[in-house]
Every structure is written in C-alpha cells, then in structure tokens.
C-alpha cells in the first residue's frame, strides 16, 4: 500500500504538471482531488513541497502578490525530472494502484495514464472489490442470526456500496475496451445479495 505522503507527493506533481501554482492554489486543487473527507493542512503541504524540492522534482519560480494580502506567495513549478517521475508513477500499474487510498488519486490523473495501464488498474480494482464483496456477503450469511437490526443494516449498506462500485468499474472497463455505446448503456449486472 502506498504511503499517504507518497500519494500527496504524486498528487502534487500531477497538479503542478498542469502549470505553476502558489501554495494556496495548489492546496485548493489538491483538496478537490483528494476529496472533502481528507483534510489537507498547510502543515502537510509545505513539508511535501520541501521533499519535492529536495528531490529536484519542483522548483520555486519566484513570488506573486497575494490577492488579499501584501505578502508575496511563492510559485512552484515542475522540473524536467519532476515531469518524468510523474509520468512514470501515472503509468505504473500494481496492487497499490487499486488500494482504497491510491485508487482515487490514480483516477484523478487517468487522462495522463496510458490506456493499457488504466485498464489494468481498473481490472485490479474490480477484482479487489469483488473479493471484498464476497467476504462481506459470507460474513453476513454466517452471522445474520447474531446481528442486531442496526449492524445488519450497516453491513447491507456496505454490500450495496461495493455492488455499485463493481457495476461502475464494469462500465469504465467496457469504455476502456471501446465497447459500443449500446452495450455501455446496459453494463453487466452485479448479483444482489439475498436477504
């Protein structure tokens, strides 16, 4: 599983691959990519930027005046090495690419990932979710008579979420394989759990 700092590093490189930004704009863009439930403080962003600079993957271009303050903001940009590292990361399939934490970050940069790698990542994620779904169903089946109503509802909610994700992944995989749109409108159905 990729470390959280690695994901932040690569997400930062991905955002900066679109053009130079100052810290505030970079933090805002990363918050959109990483989602509202993952807090990103300046206390994690600036150590990340220092790491990226130490590796030679980003550089400071100078400073611009802030829109509401007189304090200048440092602008960061990718170096040639930083672009190479990002492209290598974006095109590297592997089991960490379909973990819960990594998958969302990978998906955010799929437009810069080779089609064959996108397909491998999507198939890996689907396989991981199908395994998880099977375990969840088995757990519910074995423990149904011992579960109270609320625990049972929570587990059913988890199963439904996993089923939706598998269905969504199936449609993305079909799209990657260039399956005609008529088949995309009716992706394979995931078997529902019996209650």
UniProtKB/TrEMBL annotation:
Residues 13-86 form the Transcription regulator PadR N-terminal domain. This is Unannotated protein. Gene3D superfamilies: Winged helix-like DNA-binding domain superfamily/Winged helix DNA-binding domain (1.10.10.10). Pfam families: PadR (PF03551). InterPro entries: Metal_resp_DNA-bind_regulator, Tscrpt_reg_PadR_N, WH-like_DNA-bd_sf, WH_DNA-bd_sf. It comes from freshwater metagenome.
